[in-house]
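hey so i finally got around to running both of the ones u sent me last week. sorry it took forever, my laptop kept dying halfway thru and i had to restart like 3 times lol. anyway pasting them below in the order u listed, first the sequence line then the structure token line for each. didnt double check formatting much so if smth looks off just lmk and ill redo it

first one:
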Amino acid sequence: MFGIKDKIVLSMSAIRLISGMIELLAACLIFKFNSRIVAFEINSFLALVGPLVMVLATSVGLIGLADELSLLQMGVIVLGVILIFVGIKL
């Protein structure tokens, strides 16, 4: 279909596809149960899944770029991800 030959790109897209399927499943479950409490619980679960997916996909990408980036560049990227989480907590 798309002809992806890079295993890192394939891995990152697979992680995002799985994440999207989890989101769609959660939406269907919210409709099925038709309860504010259950909807809140499902949404809370998704709040945990989202950051994990971001960290996993970013980690896979960094592994793939390890031979192309300097140590300083990798450190700045990791610091950026950490700052995203710090910003969310503020």
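and the second one:
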Amino acid sequence: MTIRIPQQELDLLDAYCEQVSRTKSDVLRDFIRSLSKKVTKSE
């Protein structure tokens, strides 16, 4: 997957990943998983 984000947001992501000693993939994966709590599924 490729995403395009402004340099400022990439720098923020890099800083966060360094702070928590995790990869960008790990952080983004956890964020995506957290969306399941916020999205209302219509059935």
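quick thing i noticed on the 2nd:
Residues 17 and 24 are 6 Å apart (CA to CA).
anyway thats it, ttyl
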